[in-house]
Amino acid sequence: MRSAVTLLALTLAAVPSCRRCGVDHAQTAPEAVTPLPAARATPGGPYRLLLDGDTRARLRAAAEAKTPAWRVLSSLCEEATAEHLDSGYQGFQWADALASTALCWHATRDPRYGRAAVAYLNALLDDRFAVGDERGGETVVRHDSGYGIRTFGVYSALGYDWLRDAPGMTPALRARTRARLGQWLGWYARDGYLRDHALSNYYWGYLTALALSGLSASGESPEGDRWLEGARTKLEHDVLPAFRERLPDGGWPEGFQYGEYTGLEIGLVVRAFQTAAGIDLRTALPWLGTLARHHSHALLPDGRSVYDGGTWGEHPARPSPLALSGALLASGTDAEARYMVRHLLPPLTREHAWVRLLVEDPRASERDPRVGAASSLHLRGLGLTFARSRFSSDAVWTSFQAGPFLAMDHQDKDQGHFELWRGSDGLVVDGGDAEGSATINHNTLLIDDHEDHMNYTPNQGVWGSGVRTTRFFDDGTLVVAVGDLADAYAPKCAAEGCPRSVEGLTRTFVYVRPGLLVLDDRALLASAGYGVTWIAHVTTRPTLGRAAASASVGGSRVDMAFLEPPNATLSAPKEPTASGEGPHRQNHPWGPMWRIEAKSPIGSRERGFTVFLSAGARSAPKTNVTRVSSAGLRGGVAAGTAVLFASAEGKGHAALGVPARSVVVLDLEPGRRYRLEPEVDPTSCFVSVRLTPDPAGRVASPAGSLRATIPACRR
Question: Domain locations in the chain?
């Protein structure tokens, strides 16, 4: 049963955790506790975890009807029954084999499957690599800081419950299972990695093992009661407050390579509390209900790739239905999750095929989450924005990241990062592989403070709890997001009040559908001698010109025009380049990669970049951008749209120099009224903006923007 997922897990094992890197993250204030009712296992049938009467009936019906999910799983059960499989990475193959053969036994009552499942339970309890090798046992979960608690622990607990009356299950084996679970859970409670950090995949491996062990053994043993109370306390004190305060609208800070399996674990815990203890966590933990919306926006236009924030071992990153299947475990009525699992995501055909059978329900309704939805999504907790021209396979898709560091591991140092795709063509991409977490691998700013204060110059640190998306707006044509990024460059000692090299830094992300993206950066440095470099990654060798660059990928091309600083000198080194050692410095590309760089001249504490990026067909004429700079307004005109940034006074007057159909003005005060007027003379078209008390004035959006058509300037 070894496959790409198993190999991917081996890749992830090589990625160092932050504990092993010796890094302390910013400390955050504890959230308010969310009370839960006292937990006591009250099964309504012979099995407690997930397998209520309705679920067992669906399993039997699937086997009789030979549904697609049953055909896949039954073939895997035959394979796992015919021979003893090796454990796979950290026991994942045994875990899958136990769950698969256990469900096949419940669906058919074929004793072969029951005996095979019990054999794999014995292997999880005592072995490590091969059935019967006796190289596991008490210490097997201690490898890789406790990673294996999610397999050896979780699936032993499932086996304890699902195999209660299976052939080969004995009172002695049940007692041995409880004893082993006690050893594993006791060690993890003392020494396991990130055991108190709810936004971590390690935490969820532990909590899932603790919860399922407690729910399955409570009332049968004192330790089962203690485990269940421990899981309830962790949910109450750790999980519910953290998800409510830090992930109010979804997402996963480690990225969804880890988030997919974590989503399954969360779904298992939520459903198990419902079936075993009668406690419904879905309202208190609505995160699972956000997954369909997130996944529909994170899925790139080609339908074969997904947004790759956080750690990923494969690029382009591939979609998975696992987290959404967790959502369906928790709530079989999630029609949007069911639509995506059925129609938009690849099916579970090997690893976790047992989950596919559990959530398969031909009678359940479905709904396409894209129908009637906005073509952008902003997640306030993560500070992550997705936007696209429309939901179609040839759409332009873009993203912007500006949020706090929430995860102790696997969250990239990428604040200010953006990406740009057209259809299946990645025009500006995340350049880092699974070890490419440092800022130099992403598309943002590098700050060289000559190592005066920053710990990983010129890269961001891991203490940026104050990074935020301060403004977001989408009117159907225009998307604006403003990120306050300064804290991403804070040194480790910032909480003690030590000096900072970056005193202020904002990036304004402006997307004008269908294919124009504008980035505007404003930085305030502690020293005029520091360096600032704008970077973006492309997978083909770019063409560089005077303050311009372009790159072609597949049938698409991106044109970049650097309006500020004027006459910017560009370079495009092929990566990797020398960057220092360690995960917070090293340049680690996932494939052929060029880093487009523009450096700001030194000599002033205030620095700025204004860059226009146009995405279109490879064969299309080059997009010309005309620079606009006058009293109170600066920016440019591209493809008939003027994008202008107002001064702090909120007023200005500018000559566009070329025809324009529409104008966007930014950096205004949200909610204030402005007069925006075009003026035409024989030589040019002018645009003016100013505050007005006139009730007929235009109201600036929540992002401080105005957009208007300007018919007088079309020619």
Answer: 4-26+50-359, 376-623, 624-715
